[in-house]
Amino acid sequence: MSGMHEDSCAPEQTRQIRQRARNASKQTASAVTGKPRKHKQAKCGPGQEINGPELFREAADGNELQNQSKAGCLTATLTSDPRVRDSWKMNPDEKMQMLERAGKTKALVLTLVYRDGTTQLDPEQKLTPEVCGLLVLMKNKLDRSAPEDSLEPNDCLVYLKLEHTPAWAQQHTHQSQELFTKDMLLLVLSSSQPAVCYKAKDLLCTALQFYRPELSWKQVAGCRIHDPQVSGWLLDPANPSSCYPELLSRHSKRPRTIPAMGTKKVSQVISGLYSLYWLNMELCFKLQSQGLWRLYSDMELNMISVLAAMESHRIHVDKEALKRTSELLGTKMKQLEQDAHRAAGQIFLVTSSTQLRTVLFEKLCLHERCENKKLPKTVNKQQQSTSEAALLQLQDLHPLPKIILEYRQVHKIKSTFVDGILSCMASKNSVSSTWNQTSAVTGRISAKHPNFQALPRQPLQITKKQYVQGKEEEVVTVHPRAMFIPHDGWTFLSADFCQVELRLLAHLSSDPELLRIFINPQVDVFTMLASQWKGVSEGEVTSEDREHAKRIVYSVVYGAGRERLSGILGVSAEQASRFQDSFLQTYKEVQTFIQRTIQQCHKQGYVLSIMGRRRSLPNINSPDWGLRMQAERQAVNFVVQGSAADLCKMAMIKIFNLVSSSSSLSARLVAQLHDELLYEVEDSQVEQFAGLVRSTMESLQHIDHLGVHLKVPLRVAVSSGKSWGSMSDLNPPTVSPSH
DNA sequence: GCGTATAACGCATGT
DNA sequence: CACATGCGTTAT
After folding, report:
1. A433: which nucleotide lies closest, measuring CA to C1'?
2. A51 pLDDT above the threshold of 70
3. Is the domain covering A316-485 a CATH 2.60.40.60 domain?
């Protein structure tokens, strides 16, 4: 299959939608008012209740009407089917019986129902379909029989409508409906019997959103809803299935029974729920036989609720400041564009790398004037690159490359981190990323809309031309991270695993020299490496040298060739490979670790992380040299990067469990940046929480029940601040971890 | 012939 | 070197 995963076409859609929106607003801005157009939608603050007429107006606007009629159709189909129990048609006695029955049933199988008439089990999923209900199958017979499209005798299927009753129409019965649905959800969250849901995180998010604030995020802690999407990804992280039917056909023994044209929708849903149950059984069995059960049960299953809680928290953003910087960067870009045209002696599209290529290399022929330097080529086609590395080589020959470099910096910040984030904030002053558990082969998690993990670390300096009396120029710093602000009375707290990957490399290789560095915690690691490398004393090492050493070490570990290394380092290939040799000579065991990992991968076809995460690499025995070498690098990288991911996820889970079982602590996880956790903490609890976080994370050196015992200590740096852009170090006392 | 959806590519950001 | 996501252009 192709390497596609879930909603792979969605980003494209949103991009285009956003683009259209931007264009539209741009047009109105320049042509009519000169200012960005205000959103026409009525204000509806976070705490405000939606009143009835407002709801109607929204529904009647645009395409919603279509969806609603479809939804009404599906809801009607579901609730009019004799096999489905509609919670809205049950009397109090029946509800009691239903809750009791749910508590006693052998297994619960669930799926969300969307307003567009689909469920989580349908192949095509829109970007963020609106939820209208929840189907719960209570299953009692656990022996396998033929696939059903109708209920087994003792089973029960109930439909819970998830639609808030407008305040103006609320009656006693409606309130009790929501109460009943909430009780059912609570039962699912705390159920001792197995519960299964494809994309369980979405279910948890829906529950948290629908019953906010009476359902606290702490209440999803410790819930264990099985998720076949996660299981399937764990079994083969390189090839995640794009949708439920694909996952099913890949893992079910029998070929999937394609629903006949005439099959009723309700029958399809019922057979889907039964197949979901058996698919989960099958996947659990496979996980066990592949040695992945502990990883699934102790880590990934718990991650689902951690991510749901994180996703259900919105981060406050200084929207007005974002809008101001958007305009500022816009004018700056116009200036740079003109500069570029002047320097080139022609008009061209500055954002187009192909047009820039013809200007630089066909018109100005800059490549002929630097034959001593080697200019990078594009990856796929053999063309002259216009990448940063190439432009840096050319910048002394002509003014244009420098202008382009600055233009690109500004453009990137504006498009992705200013306008991009603004478009993620539809009529609110806050954002919440979507966190994906199954999109990274290494076991890391990823974020989108916005991608919180890729916000620039360093602020950008802009010199603004200004013709006012006094000064002629003004320097403004633009820092996207500084736009993220904690709520009133709260503080951001960041906890960073220091050099996790290098520490894990020391552990995995047992290299005595590398171990020594970490057991003597006096001097900074990369400073030490830099001094060793450059042959100067530790005091002589500049912060630039240190950053350099950092990049080089990781490059060497992950198998960078001398070409690539010399590119990073900016020195000759000769010197690069000399450093490479000296590094691997100094840390001999690192080299044997690399060779051992590759050899093991050749033999078994897969490699394992420290907690047993698995990645198979089919190309490891490929006759194609390039593919084989790539697989070897991937194998080494996976063991280190995957192990680091294991540790960071474990930290998230442990801290989540500690906070959610505490009556006083209120800190919330806001984001994960791979080896860094960002929390929002009540001002009064910052110090206490800082100590707790640090000691919890550092205690992960030893995880008894998973047999993890690192040969190096873990170090965690904690900092806090009133914006994400201005964090200052904290030095919390070590707290004894309580159990 | 012209405008729109899609895929591939190049270039950015982060760890 | 590895792993991600996002924006924009260009060819189909």
Report:
1. C5
2. no
3. no
